TrEMBL record, chain A:
Cross-referenced Gene3D superfamilies: MetI-like
SUPFAM superfamilies per record: MetI-like
InterPro entries in the cross-refs: MetI-like, MetI-like_sf
Protein family per UniProt: Belongs to the binding-protein-dependent transport system permease family.
Membrane topology category: Multi-pass membrane protein
Pfam families hit by this protein: BPD_transp_1 (PF00528)
Domain ABC transmembrane type-1: 101-280
Transmembrane segments: 44-66, 78-98, 104-127, 148-173, 223-247, 259-276
Protein location: Cell membrane
Domain of life: Bacteria
UniProt source species: Ignatzschineria rhizosphaerae
Principal location class: membrane
Protein name: Proline/glycine betaine ABC transporter permease
Automatic annotation (TrEMBL), chain B:
Residue intervals of the ABC-type glycine betaine transport system substrate-binding domain: 28-270
InterPro entries with a match to the protein in the record: ABC_Gly_betaine_transp_sub-bd (IPR007210)
Classification via CDD domains: PBP2_OpuAC_like
Keyword terms, alphabetized: Cell membrane, Membrane, Signal, Transport
Protein known as: Glycine betaine ABC transporter substrate-binding protein
Domain of life: Bacteria
Signal peptide region: 1-19
Subcellular locations according to the entry: Cell membrane
Amino acid sequence: MNIEIGKYVEQFVDWLSTVGRPFFDQVANIIGSSVKGLQSGLNAVPPFVMIIIITLLAFLAMTGIRQFKTSLKNYKKSFGLPIFVIIGLLLVYSMGFWSQLIDTLVLVLVSTIIILIIGIPLGILCAKSRKTDAVVRPILDFMQTMPAFVYLIPAILFFSVGDVPGVLATVIFSLPPAVRMTTLGIKEVPEDIIEASLAFGCTSSQMLYKVQIPLAMPTILAGINQTIMLALSMVVICSMVGAGGLGESVYASIQQADMALGFEAGLSIVILAIILDRITQAIGRQ
Amino acid sequence: MNKLFKTIAIAAMSLFTLAACGDDDQTKPVKILYPSWAEGVAMTHLAEYVLDNKGYAVETTLIEPGPLYAALSKGDADLYLDAWLPHTHQDYWERFGNKLEVIGVVFDDASTGLVVPDYVEIDSIDELNDNIEIFDGKIYGIGAGAGIHGNTIKAIEEYPLNYEQLTSSESSMMAELRRSIAAKEPVLITGWKPHYMWDLYDLKMLKDPKEVYLVDQIEILSRQGFKEDHPEVANFFSHFQFDSDKLHELMGMVGEDERNPKAGAQKFYEKYQAEIDSWFQ
């Protein structure tokens, strides 16, 4: 008894990649041009201006605009992250990895935006309907546990070598927490609040937008934070299918046994990860 | 404290040297490293099968080229059958070569270059600049840091070409080739011989009038002192040679069933048994 599932999958992928060519090209175009456009746009901004912008972002995320006005105590507490941002980004710049950092940042952001567009509505659907949840949950498990190397090659057959298969592989790997945390957040809205809103004659769409989503927001933001972290863990794997950025330097350092290059590029990834993590967490706390 | 360290280090070193002495060929496994390149995979599996068959213990490990050279130069492994010298692996050789020995030459016509499918009507790298739109200005390459990647950067500078090289990995590049050939579209990749791409598709290597891509030998490298420890195995590898047809045949047989490369190696050995056995003389 020898079931050759792999062979059938291969034939199916080959068939799909030729039949679906126009559609895939369209998708590749949209994603590819938005990645390229953002990369060249952000790379055109002088590094020091960019560092100031990100520092301000970090500062605002830490203080929250309202608290900034009311209390000096919070104002003092929120210097830690901005200082780290300045030092960390200047270090990346001085090591010569600035444009790669921007490239990686764009890859992560584009992947995250796609994930939000798909993940949050899907999470809401799962929270509303048990049946949808029963179908989606095993698919999410599959996406999270299937090794990325397995779908990289089909991704190339569909979307050619470059940023696009990298972004899609990242989406597949990092989507589950966004969906799951959204579902969890909405399900955890206390029953008595729901009843009170119903008593005030709340329609179901008002319930969703004015009650459930705002109350679920901290959980949803925690999911987005996890998504960004997972997306960052994919950057090296994505460089194997032609997505550039810091991952490419790490991959090159493995091939050349170049420890110095690997450490510097790896450190840059860590700095980027810490900045994104702290900023999204701070926004979640506000 | 330093004294203590020194003592411990010396004790450890002497233990290691003691352990390394007095072993004969048969008991200490021969450790062969190989990267995931088709010709290296095929040769390594054949060597493993033949040596195994003759009663030598063999261990093979798949590893990226950088760590491979580093491990071999440190003496953590014994052999590497797939060194492209003097050009493609020049960087590695400059860094690690003084701690390595060449114990055989497998093949003397290993070429790298820019490759297109047969149906593309271009024959030379000179013509590329007039046909940028056909190829979308892209050269699909393998990993940054590979020798052929560096050569392609050189080619882009020297001709000069208005192309960008996309770096990915060998499997990604091959997937792109497969995709383009299925759709009968033009595509430009960095290719090399020997490789299984030539058995799968009708391709041609573009002429290289400026001679940026130089012809290499595939050499067998060992750690220092391997010859003294394993004279018989070293002798076998000094005869371990193929012409182009045989190397491609071996790659075809080993690659036929990727889950069981040993079967292909066995088939090849049985076909050329007399010749391969004579390599032990």
